[in-house]
Amino acid sequence: MTRGRSILALCTATLTLWGPPPGTLAHKPITSPFTFYEDVLPITRAKCGQCHAPDGIAPMSLLTPESAVPWGESMKLELVAGHMPPWGSLAPADRFVARPRLTARELNVLLTWAAGGTPAGDPAKTGGDEPPLARWSMGPPDAVMPLAETSLPPETAASTRDLVLPLDYNGRQLVAVDLLPGTASVVRSARVSMGARPEDAGDDRVLALWVPGDAPARLPAGSGWTIPSNSNLRVRVSYRKRWDREREPATDRSQVGLYFAATPGPREAGALRLRAGRPNIPTSDRVTGQIVSSAAVRVVAIYPEPALAGSTVHVETVAGDGTRTSLAVFSARAGWERRYWLVEPLDLAAGNRLEVTARWPGPTAAVAEGTPLLGVDVLPR
After folding, report:
1. Could you give the residue range(s) of every CATH 2.60.120.230 domain in the chain?
2. I need a labelling partner for 276 at 20 to 30 A (CA). Which of 19, 51, 63, 342 fits?
3. Highest mean pLDDT: which of 214-218, 279-283, 351-355?
4. pTM of the full predicted structure?
5. Residue 271: CB atoms within 10 Å
6. Residue 80 CB contacts under 8 Å (≥ 6 apart), including other chains
7. CATH code of the domain made up of 269-380
8. Coil, helix or strand at residue 301
9. What kind of fold does domain 143-267 have according to CATH?
10. At what angle do helices 104-115 and 72-81 cross, to 10 degrees?
11. Around Cβ 83, how many Cβ atoms within 10 Å?
């Protein structure tokens, strides 16, 4: 991308801009009762600081007025447009564990400050330190697996690397997996999965979907992913340089953190994968897929596959008598694949169906029959 192109995005958890900051704006009269240090910084520090720090994935810090003020107009536009946070809308919201979003008050503070002259205020009233950028969000893991070092030469702005590591913890039961970037400014996303044979890579058990600003979650108590013998950990990391460092070389050596069950639980976490039905035809306005549960299971989480990027997704359960119940409606954003954990698990009887329908705002994406659309994490009932 050229340095003159700007993709504006303000995020409660992360904001990714791939263009230069806007030019100097004409002076605006100070009309905002809110100031940066007293009112704005507590919000950006809590909701944006993991990414909007000097060495974060976003190419500007929102932790000082000097770095935030030039983006005030862009912040206002992106907040009003509702483009961020990047997790996409999810309904019904109370059914899923949600990332913290801007409250109505926080949104009012940011909009008023951005439109009202962006006053700095008193630096002595910051009320705390800047948030740490690199940390394990669930605390120190039980085991850490360093990935091989990856280099991005000056001419490479983006790259995806697939890494395979032997998972020498036979019989241990995993309850969570996390990733800690080595160089936070270039690590854009990661998919961590587990499989035994190279030929099974397409059907690996997905352990983690990592994106900046998100936080992993543990499997429900009493359950876990048991590690079979001769298993491999497969990690696909997507790298993308910030526009302000696009021509600089970069290196990264991220780490994968493993969290084990203190005592192995009796329930083995499994997965269902919904796949696309018949191939899409030009007159179709949607892509559909379904899967029939062969045994009674308890659904604990869902996650979109990359094929759904850019679509609005509707997931329904269909009982044996044909009764349909909406499970979730969400927007799937490219590069922001993440797990959506249910607050309360959903019981699915043997013979019940899960169906997914995806619609795009423009021409329907070409999705071949059998393409994975949605991952469903389940426990035995």
Report:
1. 143-267, 269-380
2. 342
3. 351-355
4. 0.85
5. 16
6. 111
7. 2.60.120.230
8. strand
9. Jelly Rolls (2.60.120)
10. 140
11. 16
